[in-house]
Amino acid sequence: MALRHFSLPDLGEGLTEADILGWLVKEGDDVTLNQPIVEVETAKAAVEVPSPWAGKVTQLHAPQGQTVAVGSPLITIDVAGAEAAAGAAAQGEAPREAMLVGYGPSPARKGRRPRIAAARGSAALVSSAPADVTVLAKPPVRKLARDLGVDLRSVRGSGPAGSITRDDVGAAGHPATGAKSPANNGVSAHVPGERIALHGVHKAMAEAMTRSAFTAPQASVMLTVDATATMALREVLATRPEFAEVPLSPLALIARAVCVAASRAPLINSSLDDGAGEIVLHEQLNLGFAVATARGLIVPNVKDAASLSLPQLAAALNALITIAREGHTRPADLSGGTLSITNVGVFGVDGGTPILNPGESAIVCLGTIAPRPWVRDGDLAIREVVTLSMSFDHRVIDGQVASQFLADVGAMVTDPRLLLTG
């Protein structure tokens, strides 16, 4: 017997701990090199950790739900049989694949479970069920099933390729009435009286928002504008070839307006170096988008967003939001943000005053775009109206700069010809 102990590696960005979401193997199982063995959730994302060796699992060191520090034991594997096989292979067979630790190997590798691509994403083949039972479900769906006590093996999937959706799990969790789970709005289902552990992404969000609220003196400005022309432009652009594969949302158009306006107001894309007593004007605008996921709020960002064309920005935005909701956001996409947008309009909310992401000096909030009475050229008309708001760090940005910036964004929303020329 040759036992090897595998400890939790640093999964990127200097993270110090992770929560065990679920084991993909059990004691006594045979594992292959690079086979995913456990799904963990860090403060930034949920990832699958592959096995660094082939062999037989002899011990799992942490139960599901436990928080494990980087460097702490995860699993013990008996590699004796695998090393013997490797020695035989050295006599003439192809060499064994090199060890990979962290986010796992590239696709189509021996021991890696296959993935089936869906029209708008992918559903991971993940199951704690016996080997002859395949369960198609994305990570947020699996977490919801655990929260509701639903056995995914007993659920009939209605999604692409037979994958299990949140609605499927919600219906299975309420068999008497067939009612859908409250989690269908993209947030985990909860019941009155329960106590919810604060960990992972949610814990990181709570700490970041507390740090931001008690560090930066934050103020807000608001502006309501006529977005009818922007919505009309969206309909026209959506028919063009460059948007054939890229859904063009109002958020993408307003994000472009934010990029253009920020290029004319450098303080908006800046941060305060408190220790040095300096304001840092960023050369690159990394535009973050707040996304509500089953595990909590995260803010992935599009790198150098101001340099992208509208089709490129729309594609990058759609990709980040889709990946975030599937629970596969990379830590690199969650770091380095310099300016953010939050879209509360998708929930039918008129507007809000969001809290800054730590290290950033401004965040723009987009409310719902809806038909409302509006005075235009002296006459009352029904127009598509939106409220834009902005929170800012008053140590860096004063009211004049914030107001002029938001007015600039609003002008481009009212007349998108300014956006295209900008």
Note poorly predicted spans: 88-134, 175-188
Outline type: globular
Determine the fraction of residues in helical runs and give it as a percent range. 10-25%
Please state the average pLDDT score. 79
Question: What's the helix and strand layout?
Answer:
Layout: E1 3-7, E2 17-23, E3 30-31, E4 36-41, E5 46-50, E6 55-60, E7 67-69, E8 73-78, H1 80-89, E9 115-118, E10 121-124, H2 139-148, H3 166-173, H4 200-213, E11 218-226, H5 228-237, H6 250-263, E12 270-273, E13 278-281, E14 287-289, E15 291-293, E16 296-298, E17 301-302, H7 310-326, E18 339-343, E19 362-366, E20 370-376, E21 379-393, H8 399-414, H9 416-421
Parallel strand pairs: 14-18, 18-19
Antiparallel strand pairs: 1-8, 2-4, 2-7, 3-6, 4-5, 6-8, 9-10, 11-21, 12-13, 14-17, 15-16, 19-21, 20-21
How would you portray this structure in words?
This protein has 422 residues and is an alpha+beta fold. The chain is 25% helix and 26% strand. The chain contains 9 helices and 21 strands. The protein has helices spanning 80-89, 139-148, 166-173, 200-213, 228-237, 250-263, 310-326, 399-414, 416-421, and strands at residues 3-7, 17-23, 30-31, 36-41, 46-50, 55-60, 67-69, 73-78, 115-118, 121-124, 218-226, 270-273, 278-281, 287-289, 291-293, 296-298, 301-302, 339-343, 362-366, 370-376, 379-393. Strands 11, 14, 17, 18, 19, 20 and 21 form a 7-stranded mixed sheet that branches. A 4-stranded antiparallel sheet has the order 1-8-6-3. Strands 5-4-2-7 form a 4-stranded antiparallel sheet, with no helix packed on it. β12 (270-273) and β13 (278-281) form a beta hairpin. α2 runs parallel beside α3 and α6 packs across α7. The longest helix has 17 residues, at 310-326. It is globular and about 85 Å long. The protein starts with a strand and ends with a helix. 37% of the residues are buried.
